[in-house]
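Researcher: Last one for today. Full complex below.
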Amino acid sequence: MKQFSELISTIEITNKTNAKIDALVDYFKTAPEKDKLWLIALFTGKRPPRPVKTTLMKQWCMEITQLPEWLFLESYSTVGDLGETLALLSPKPSCQIDRSLSEWMAELKTLKPKEEDEKKAYVLNAWSGLHQQERLIFNKLIGGSFRIGVSKKTLVNALAKLTGIHANQLMHSIIGNWDIDSISFEDLINGSHINYDNSKPYPFSLAYALEKELLELGEPKDWMVEQKWDGIRGQIVKRNSEIYIWSRGEELVTQQFPELVEVMSNFKDDFVIDGEILAMKDNTILLFNDLQKRLNRKNVTKKLLQEVPVGFYAYDLLEFNNEDVREKTMKERRLILEQLFGSIMLPEYLKLSFIIDFEKWEELYNVRANSRMLNSEGLMLKQKASPYHTGRKKGDWWKWKVDPLTIDVVMIYAQKGSGRRSSKYTDYTFAVKKDDKLVTVAKAYSGLTDKEITEISKWVNKNAIEKFGPVRTVKPELVFEIAFEGIALSNRHKSGVALRFPRIVRWRKDKPASEIDTIETVKQLITAT
Amino acid sequence: MQLIKFTKKGIYCPQGEFYLDPWFPVDYAVISHGHADHARWGMKHYLCQHDSKAILQHRIGADIKIESLGYNDPININGVNVSFYPAGHVIGSAQIRLEHKGFVVVFSGDYKTQPDFISTPFESVKCNTFITESTFGLPIYHWKSEKELQNELQQWVINNQANNRTSVFLGYSLGKAQRLMSLLEGADHIYVHRAIHNLNEAISNSGIQLPETTLLTNDFDKKALQNKIIIMPPGLLGSRLLKRVPNAATAICSGWMQIRGNKRWQAVDAGFTVSDHADWNGLISAVKDSEAEQVYVTHGSQAIFAKYLNEIGIKADELKTEYGEEVMAKAEQEYEKVVAQ
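Model: Here's the assembly. Have a good evening.
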């Protein structure tokens, strides 16, 4: 496993995607056949079920190290990763076990049905024969993610560099149906098990943020205006009875949205459409936070399908019955799309994105201002005569987002991050004033520079009230300006309000905690929107 | 017996009328080692181990009033027997042993129990009261042997050379730099930043032999530097000087590199776990071997380490001091700035 272990070390130390790709290419050039397949399987979520529970592994580790649980937990909160904590705590290896990645995976597969004491003996033996980095990888092979920033897209780009095959085709190949025991590496990447002609996507057309006055855009009648839906962009490809869903990042996400696959199969025609995947319930669009529960899941359970159903708002047509229609005008494409959508009974979760009726540009200011109520991010302005561009082109498509809301808050809790950020306090809880007390309004963890995070971490270390555990209560002193996309009354939150996408805009070193906002002023924002 | 008192200015010995590594100016300071959080400016009188003398004079001032002693070579200060024992932390680092009427206190300063190639190895000292640091006071910290480290670092240099890259190691000018020099000696020619170079000169002039190095001048010859080894202080990460080094591969060398998240936090090419402090087992064994009835735990994970010691039956309390990595890093950077001007 030395080679695999070295690959992981190389990948995790660098933050340059190209260096990651080069390391992967090197691995694919030199690793044994089966190991290459396992690498792809591990990084695409095609891994066997976890053979040993983590609670057991933790228990065994405490047993052999004789450490009290609180000290184990302190260690865990400093390291931020269970597999790594176990690897660091276990005693130094007493022998050396040398097995390839595929050999380990084969053994782990047979471990699953075994009795607990057999599992224990196996795991403890492995720990005693692997040095720290390999031990960490062994723990990760049992279960858990590597968190080293290798997305499917990075993996596919490495394979594309290695073979010269188009990345999207490779994406289809590795996501497609294949079984590690019955396919060769060559067959897998050549796509012998798939028909790429059926899934091939087009590059997405992307919009720039509006940078001029509406009046400068010309005649309102030449423009088509829609809500800017706030889900994830999706391209649905239906060809020869096969259906594929591509995300903006050119990942195949078909399996994550079975309800969309099902409804698309009702159409007689073949097509490629562009639109927005949204969480939707009872004809209402839910928050992006809800949609997130559906993303990057290995299994979409029935329960989840009921809790967070998704829908699709279609806004463009790229291909119709095998004809590339991207050069037709927006207006023409929309017309065919409307006909297509008229050909079946549409369920309420499949819709054409509706076009906003307006005569004068001024009317749009109000529409935009109210878009939050629809859980939309603002407006999209599209020139009716425009083709479907490849990538980002200026001039034909504009996004006109609503301005975020902002408030000044004080930090009251800080928590260490995980993975790359496990050494620093990166997750903060913020409060506003409520009479002479403080009340929590939001948690946020993005928007600061590494340097600021380091400075704040040092401050937290000095000003923390507790000494143990992962969460630190701090003196309410540091003031931040936070921005958010929406606000609603909420019974679930102590403050009575729920903020949508709170994030840190800046650290207000210039403001004392006495000048933060009050809950009353925050609540006034609800009526204002 | 109260042989030490914890005061605002630092740890004080009332019988001997002197302080141990005080953080405010006092009349008489006994110094454990040359790091900026332990050896500060403004003392009327300094006492340190022989090998620290040149370092203190170099950093604090040539005109300071300073006396030095060898290891295990006691003197009597106002009836208190004071002696130094090796702490294995950096060149000249010492544990300070105080004895008065049969009662013994050991202040260990910063220490490392594992031997390295450059500092005098740590020696355990029996005492009634032991004051220990706790920088790496969690059971996740375990260091490799010096031999293993040497292989790891030298192998990295060889790999870099195969890829036509220059190996840059980042480490504090006092301690880590000399340790790295000893670990890398023989791998290839070593260049050092001026802050390290000047300190090395001071150390060499006092008669201690160091591995051979060359000063990295500001107008260095890029060609000559290619594929070689450079050691510079961590404050220079991201500096213009570092950016001018041809095809640099940069490595941070610190105990914190034990955790993956810390490696990834900095945009560097490698992170090596090289620490001048004791690891978890080192701390435990130092405390146990001292056979102290009372342990005070200073800078680092003091709450955790003290709690654990009490659980295994060793009476321990936390002690708040002004020592520690953050204080030191800041002060060390000040020294480096002065040098750079």
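The radius of gyration of chain A is 26 Å. The interface with chain B takes residues 12-15, 65, 67-68, 70-71, 74-75, 78-81, 84-85, 88-89, 92, 136, 417-424, 450, 458, 461, 467-468 of chain A (CB under 8 Å).
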